[in-house]
Amino acid sequence: MSRPLSDGDVLACLSAAVRLAAGQRAWADLHGLTQSYVSKVLRGDQAPSPRVLAALGLQEMPRRYVPIERGAVR
Predict the structure, then answer these.
(1) pLDDT recorded at residue 67
(2) How far apart are CA 43 and CA 11, in angstroms?
(3) How far apart are CA 11 and CA 68, in angstroms?
(4) Residue 43 CB contacts under 8 Å (≥ 6 apart), including other chains
(5) Comparing C-alpha atoms, which of 38, 24, 31 is closest to residue 57?
(6) What is the spatial distance between Cα 6 and Cα 23, in angstroms, rounded to a whole number?
(7) Residue 47: phi, psi to the nearest 5?
């Protein structure tokens, strides 16, 4: 199982994909999105939609669990 990606990892994937497509508009057009939306995601102003994630070969896993540190104040 692969490690979960951070928000920064997802943005790095999107940024790389945009570069490979020769720009935001080209990548957005290829995936049925607007350039302005892609720009907002890259700036961190909006979360990536399921469509963006799918285009990157990713999916959101909203539930993650982490252990509680022993001795932590409740």
Answers:
(1) 84
(2) 9
(3) 28
(4) none
(5) 31
(6) 23
(7) -75, 150
Please, are residues 38 and 18 in contact by the beta-carbon 8 Å criterion?
yes
pLDDT beyond 90 at 3? no
Kind plus residue range of the DSSP H or E element containing 28: helix 24-30
Q: Cα 72 from chain centroid? A: 32
| 47: amino acid identity, one letter | A
Reported as half-sphere exposure (CB side, CA atoms, 13 A), residue 62 has a value of 3
For helices 35-43 and 7-20, angle between their N-to-C axes, nearest 10 degrees: 140
In the prediction, which pLDDT does 4 show?
Answer: 82
- Give 10-49 pLDDT, tens digit per residue: 999 999 999 999 999 999 999 999 999 999 999 999 999 9
| CA separation for the pair 58, 51 (Å, rounded) | 9
